[in-house]
From TrEMBL:
Domain of life: Eukaryota
Gene3D superfamilies reported in the protein's UniProt record: VC0802-like
Stated name of the protein: CASTOR ACT domain-containing protein
Region annotated Disordered, chain positions: 193-228
Pfam family, one: ACT_7
Gene Ontology BP terms: amino acid metabolic process; carboxylic acid biosynthetic process
Ranges where the CASTOR ACT domain occurs: 107-167
């Protein structure tokens, strides 16, 4: 396949840690608040880590609170140290069957995060072009769009298949960039020190099997989709079969913010204190709306929707607009009315961890459907799409003023499936 303009400037980097995903029901959030705070902010009393700012201690970590539940994506070691003892207490107290029915789940597979960088890339089309081929290869993926970068999470055992797919998209490994880049990338005009396009970057211990070879991905039980249109049909058929419909809460108005690359100790400490206050305020049972007796937007710091991503990039936070008074003072980001975002939430709790094609199928439908509505209405402004995959939810993030067009595109996908019956 040839590269599109969306991918020519892309750099794709495999991050080292092995990750697991944890889903905690919102009603149990209060039991896990302290472990979450330790995972985010503790330096484990190590002299080396105590010198590192808390925002820079994680190669990759995402903590999200959504209407579907709380989701944590981080290294397996952190989960085993801070969360497993508590989940085992639930098992002992309730019995494993009841504890599982309570909704606490940890992924069986380990995942690797792939960071995607590039200037001037259209997020929605990039999602489709990168995740579509992976979904068609039968790979279960999670996708997270942040302020500075995109992240694709794939099972560790599928890494070799992912690399092969990248190579088929025209990517080669650049030793100088330490990333996979397009063969047409400007980076390669100045550096020809490339590994063979038919071989993966040398494996590290964390990305190889015990025998040093890349772990292989088992063949999917169902033959993968042959193209994007078939992937869309399969995705919306799966959603309809499991009675999963897009949900929108009109009270959830989001903004996308990030830490400054040149952060100072004072601002980092202030952000930590502000986040702790928000997380502690969020650990009480949540009413059906964020309005609580005696509280206003200025005093209610509990979060119905909050996602923070820590990586080598500055911290990225997707949060409710009303929390700007609490968290916005130390963060970058355009915070005007035209920048307000709305999440379209897909509750995926009925699907297993290995459900494939959801992100790619939804992205394809949004890209195709939104474009058709754009032509019908004579609107030349494209629908801007970003994604937040949490452990058990797919969150499609769009601008508030473009919500109607995005919802109609999703409805069109559902109607097309109904018409095939």
């Amino acid at each position: 396949m040839t590269d599109s303009m969306n991918l020519i400037n892309a750099q794709v980097t495999f991050l080292e840690p092995r990750l697991v995903l944890v889903h905690i029901p919102n009603e149990l959030f209060s039991f896990f608040t302290q472990p979450f705070l330790r995972i985010l902010f503790d330096h484990d009393h190590s002299e080396d880590t105590s010198k590192i700012t808390w925002t820079d201690r994680h190669a990759f970590l995402n903590l999200s609170i959504t209407p579907v539940g709380c989701s944590l994506i981080c290294s397996k070691e952190l989960v085993e140290k801070h969360l497993t003892p508590l989940t085992e207490q639930f098992d002992n107290l309730l019995g494993k069957t009841k504890a599982k029915s309570a909704g606490i789940e940890t992924s069986h597979d380990e995942y690797v995060a792939i960071q995607v960088d590039g200037q001037g890339l259209d997020a929605g089309q990039r999602v489709l072009e990168l995740t579509g081929p992976l979904a068609m290869a039968g790979i279960s993926i999670f996708f997270i769009t942040t302020y500075f970068s995109d992240y694709i999470l794939v099972p560790v055992k599928a890494r070799h298949t992912v690399v092969t797919t990248l190579q088929q998209r025209g990517f080669v490994f650049s030793a100088e960039a330490e990333a996979y880049v397009s063969q047409l990338s400007p980076i390669l005009q100045h550096n020809r020190n490339l590994s063979s396009p038919f071989h993966e970057r040398p494996q590290t211990a964390s990305s190889s099997g015990s025998d040093g070879r890349p772990p292989s991905s088992p063949m999917p039980s169902t033959p993968p989709a042959k193209d994007i249109p078939e992937l869309q049909i399969r995705t919306f058929t799966k959603l309809m079969k499991n009675k999963i419909e897009p949900a929108v809460d009109p009270n959830l108005r989001l903004v996308n913010c990030a830490g400054n690359r040149d952060h100072d100790e004072a601002s980092t400490r202030q952000l930590k204190e502000d986040l702790i206050q928000v997380l502690l305020a969020s650990n009480s049972p949540r009413p059906t709306t964020h309005k609580t007796v005696g509280l206003t937007d200025d005093t209610d710091f509990s979060a119905k929707f909050l996602s923070m991503t820590l990586s080598s990039e500055p911290i990225s936070i997707l949060m409710e607009e009303r929390l700007l008074t609490q968290l916005g003072s130390t963060l970058l980001g355009t915070k005007g009315e035209e920048d307000v975002l709305v999440p379209i939430v897909l509750d995926l709790r009925a699907l297993g961890w290995t459900a494939t094609g959801i992100v790619g199928g939804v992205a394809g439908r949004l890209s195709q459907g939104a474009a058709s509505f754009q032509l019908e209405e004579g609107d030349n402004e494209p629908v801007e799409i970003s994604f937040l995959s949490s452990a058990k939810a797919g969150n499609v993030i769009v601008r508030a003023k473009q919500l109607g067009r995005a919802l109609r595109a999703l409805e069109l996908g559902m109607e097309e499936v109904k018409g095939r019956k």
